[in-house]
Amino acid sequence: IAMKIFMISLSGGDPLLCNDLERLVEKFTDAGISTMICSPGLLIDEMQIERLCRNSLVAFNISLDSVNSKINDYQRGREGACDSAKRLISYIDKYGLGKIFTSVEMVITKKNKKEIEPLVQEMINHNVNEIRIQPVVAMNYMTYDKGLALNFEDIDEIQKEIERVTKKYAINNAKEGMLCVRFVDQSKAVIKGMKDKINWGGIISPEGDLMLNGYIPYIYGNLFEYADFQDAWQKGFAKGWEIIQKDETLQNVKNIIDLQKLFKEKGFVKKRYEKVY
């Protein structure tokens, strides 16, 4: 708060499992900081959602990969994942009254790449502002073993399907209140970071590990090695891309598939850089 950050994203896991979530949200929003709650809907308290929806600085990002329970739950690795995400969306509809920014995060794999239109079709009937469609970046062996990892042809097919669906349903026309469907290319943030060496934000894991981006296999330093968050920003996050520039493999990243290759080449283990002073 003292650093005047403009937004914080509470992710996980699921922040709805956090007992002091509402205290955290209130502390941030009372200071004028927009707060996004990223949740797959693991634990939903209807009255808590009602209270959170009273706060105009709260936004929600909900993980939903398909409106088909069988496909979504397989991909999410949890029975009931689809139903709980839908229930969370319905509560935000009910209590947010279209005034709370709500996005749906759809991770695309070989398993659900035909599920874009059904999901868009259903979300049109909800107060959802945005569907963020992002290809899976295979960061573990399981993604490959389950046959979920994508190739260039898959990604091209997904982009064409998004274009077809948005035209069919006349969305993405920038009218207020209209649903927007976006294709998220995770490699662009990495390419820009390597080029500009500037970081506008970062990720802190529950263990305090500092990461510039969730899609690159690098950790540099730990929050608890610094005096405070501002110290971690000035000596860690603010210099993060300069530190990572030393790794030539990142300079060769041109697309999403390159990110996948990077994780595979590193043996799906995140390299840890020493703290930099």
Number of strands: 10
**Subunit arrangement of the protein:** single chain
Gyration radius (Cα, Å) is 19 Å
Number of helices: 12
Biggest sheet, in brief? 6 strands, parallel
Alpha-carbon distance between the termini? Answer: 23 Å
Sum up the overall morphology in one term. Answer: globular
Q: Into which percent range does the helicity of residues fall?
A: 25-40%
Q: H/E order of the elements? A: EHEHEHHEHEHHEHEEEHHHHE
- Overall mean confidence score, pLDDT: 89
Alpha-beta classification: alpha/beta
Spans of at least 5 consecutive residues whose pLDDT stays below 50 are: none
Order of strands across the widest beta sheet?
1-2-3-4-5-6
Beta-strand fraction estimate:
15-25%
Considering the chains and any ligands shown, give keywords for the structure.
6-stranded parallel sheet; two-stranded antiparallel sheet; 39% helix; 10 strands; 277 residues; 16% strand
